[in-house]
Amino acid sequence: MRKSVATLALGAFLLACAPKPPVEIDAASVEPKLYWSRSLQDQRVALTGYINFDNGPAGQAIAGGPELRSGANGAGLKLISFDAKFGSRPNQIGSATMKTDKMFKNAPSGVPEVVTFDRNALTYYDAKGAPHPVGQPARVIGRVKYAVSIENDPRSPTGQRFRPILTQVELAPGY
Fold first, then answer.
1. pTM, 2 dp
2. In angstroms, how far is the first alpha carbon of the chain from the final one?
3. Residue of higher predicted confidence among 14 and 108
4. What does the angle CA 163 – CA 74 – CA 124 come to, to the nearest 5 degrees?
5. φ/ψ (deg, to 5) at 104
6. Residue from 71, 66, 70, 62 nearest 82 by CA
7. DSSP assignment of 33-85, as one string?
8. Which end of the chain is less enclosed by CB atoms within 10 A, N or C?
9. Dihedral angle over CA of 158, 37, 82, 135, nearest 10
10. Residue 79 pLDDT > 80, yes or no?
11. 8 A C-beta contact, residue 165 and residue 81
């Protein structure tokens, strides 16, 4: 009898400590859930879309930071920015053509560098390390952090608009 009570107590404890599944957010609810409210601060969320970067003036894709969009190749709505490292390891984005350059010629030390690459050769690596072309849908799971608040935004019911970013990101195929 005692053993079964202890087993039940341990089971209840493990269930209580199990990580919660991420909050699923679809493209239609991104603005009200992420941009007009801070209610998801520090929570894990999941969104599906297409990884995108600023293409730069010559179309060479200057990587200041990745974002998730609702359409491929920069089309559709911006869903959210996320923090990801460049490389070929799990949960990273990479390409054999990537190179790091100074932001401008003869830039002094301390000026940020930019990463350039060929968009057609760009790959994201899922949590297991399997490669996927950036042109395919990706599921991004991460923890919501808010960088800044914009006051008096007429689109927001509260007048505030927030700038979320996902940290501690995990990448997966979005199909």
1. 0.78
2. 48
3. 108
4. 85
5. -150, 160
6. 66
7. IIIS--TTTT-EEEEEEEEEEE--TTSS-EEEEEEEESSGGG-S-EEEEE--E
8. N
9. -80
10. yes
11. yes
Candidates 73, 172, 77; CA nearest to 128 is 172
CA neighbours closer than 13 Å in the CB half-sphere of residue 138? 32
Burial letters 106-124, b for 16+ CB under 10 A, else e: eeeeeeeebbbbebeebbb
How many angstroms separate the CA atoms of 156 and 63, rounded? 29
Q: Which amino acid is at 126?
A: D
78 near 24, Cβ under 8 Å?
Answer: no
Phi-psi region of 10 (alpha: psi -120 to 50; beta: other; left: phi over 0): alpha
Q: What is the pLDDT of residue 142?
A: 97
Asked whether the predicted pLDDT for residue 118 surpasses 80, the reply is no
Q: Write the pLDDT tens digit of every residue in 147-163.
A: 777 777 787 777 888 88
